[in-house]
Write a structure and sequence with these properties.
The chain has helices spanning about 25-30, 50-60, 75-85, 90-105, 110-115, 115-130, 135-155, 165-175, 180-205, 215-220, 225-255, 260-265, 270-280, 315, 350-370, and strands at about 35-40, 45-50, 65, 135, 285-290, 295-300, 300-305, 310, 375, 395. It is of the alpha+beta class. Helix 6 packs antiparallel against helix 7 (about 135-155) and helix 7 (about 135-155) runs antiparallel to helix 11. It binds protoporphyrin IX containing FE.
């Protein structure tokens, strides 16, 4: 057991297996209370594992979106600065305005128009993987795919995108409950680098506009310069982290469920429901946080003004009151109203893009590599509570 992963309750201790499989712990938590008040790591708050309660809070505008950073410290200045102008942490009218302007660039139709570019990128990457005997599908496939596509959309030069892997990992670490002062300082330093990188790129695009998203954002009168900057950083982080997890967790889960994989191989048109099930079964983003702006009653409990709420999306997606046999992976599951992309006002803007990328990546991989198998059966996840992120996905090409 990791002492620091206990919630203040005698029967609630996550053991060291938590990082590989957090779901038994979430079941235990939900069975005690789907809206549980306690402290995880050093963070006191309400931990929500019930689906109905999670959905109710996501819908309730009295709960505001923000990352609570340690206050009054100049050490985290860069981090709080970029957070201040990010869509994800805006509320009400500012959120509506930014969401409308950014959202029109991420419609289902726009994502659909990227299909040929995604297909070509998937094939190029698999050409490299296929000539090898073994490969790590996180670093050699899922990550470069997500990275190349978001770089293409934004207009980040391909040769400059390599630095984003570490930068994204640093920022993700800082918004996770597992963060330490050290990771926060490092992330704030990284936020400074991201800021100067994008300030530079924005200057270049101001001087010489291109056919890319950054140039279009710059021309948008209703977006301030700081908002353009924060949006580029948010998109680059969102585009690099979660889609990688969806593809790699999805491939790993299918390889561990050969009967499901055979059904998909026999009937590739199941790819859409299969990706929805991957999103539910091992949700790439596992947690989102809110702060109550006034006293609110949820499930008979009063969440007081200023209290922090942690919505465990991955736990809500395994709630037996909504999903029949929630721990069963079923690529034909219907309906599948998972909360993997959140819900309501902050519902993921990149959901169509992520879905198409994952559908093409997973299907093409299994079509091109019929003998693909895992090179190890127990894989390690990064020690994050907010994200389900494999460190590596070693496979034998066969
Ligand atoms: C499998 C991939 C993805 C997952 C699981 C995911 C998950 C999420 C979730 C859960 C939220 C809501 C957070 C909240 O309510 O606090 C969110 C919001 C957001 N996502 Fe994604 N995301 C994914 C891919 C992407 C991609 C590819 C992009 C951009 C290219 C993106 C951009 C955003 C943005 C900008 C928001 C903020 C929306 C707002 O606040 O109005 N996401 N995402």
């Amino acid at each position: 057991m990791t002492a620091d992963l206990s919630i203040a309750h005698p029967s609630l201790h996550a053991d060291s297996g938590f990082w590989n499989d957090p779901y038994p712990f979430y079941d235990k938590l939900r069975s005690i209370d789907p809206v549980y008040k306690g402290t995880v790591l050093k963070y006191p708050g309400w931990y929500v594992t019930g689906y109905k309660e999670a959905a109710a809070i996501l819908k309730d505008i009295r709960f505001k979106n923000r990352i609570p950073l340690p206050e009054a410290s100049t050490k985290y200045q860069n981090l709080s600065h970029i957070q201040h102008d990010m869509l994800l942490f805006k509320n009400q009218s500012d959120h509506k305005r930014m969401r409308m302007l950014i959202g029109k660039e991420f419609t289902a139709k726009t994502a659909e128009s990227l299909r040929p570019c995604i297909k070509e990128t998937v094939h190029d990457l698999l050409d490299q993987v296929q000539i090898k005997k073994t490969a790590d599908l996180v670093s050699e496939f899922a990550f470069p795919l997500a990275s190349l596509i978001i770089a293409e959309i934004l207009g980040v030069p391909k040769e400059e995108r390599y630095q984003f892997r570490q930068w994204t990992a640093d920022v993700i670490q800082a918004i996770d409950l597992t963060r330490s002062r050290k990771t926060l300082v490092r992330a704030s330093d990284t936020a400074g680098r991201l800021t100067s990188y994008f300030r530079d790129l924005i200057h270049k695009r101001e001087a010489h506009p291109q056919q890319d998203l950054i140039s279009r954002f710059i021309m948008e009168e209703q977006l301030s310069k700081e908002e353009v900057l924060a949006t580029c950083i948010l998109l680059v982080i969102a585009g690099h982290e979660t889609t990688v997890n969806l593809i790699s967790n999805g491939v790993f889960t299918l390889l561990k469920h050969p009967e499901q994989l055979s059904a998909l191989r026999e009937n590739p048109s199941l790819i859409e429901t299969a990706v929805e099930e991957c999103l539910r079964y091992d949700s790439p983003a596992q947690l989102t946080a809110r702060t109550a702006s006034e006293d609110c009653e949820i499930n008979g409990k009063t969440i007081k003004k200023g209290e922090q709420v942690y919505i465990l999306l991955g736990a809500a997606n395994r709630d037996p009151s909504i999903f029949d046999q929630p721990h069963k992976m079923d690529i034909q599951r219907k309906p599948n109203p998972h909360l993997a992309f959140g819900r309501n006002a902050h519902f993921c803007i990149g959901s169509s893009l992520a879905r198409i990328e994952a559908q093409i990546a997973i299907l093409t991989l299994f079509e091109r590599m019929p003998k693909l198998r895992l090179a190890a059966h127990r894989l390690e996840y990064r020690k994050l509570i907010g994200f389900r992120s494999l460190k590596e996905l070693p496979v034998v090409i066969g």
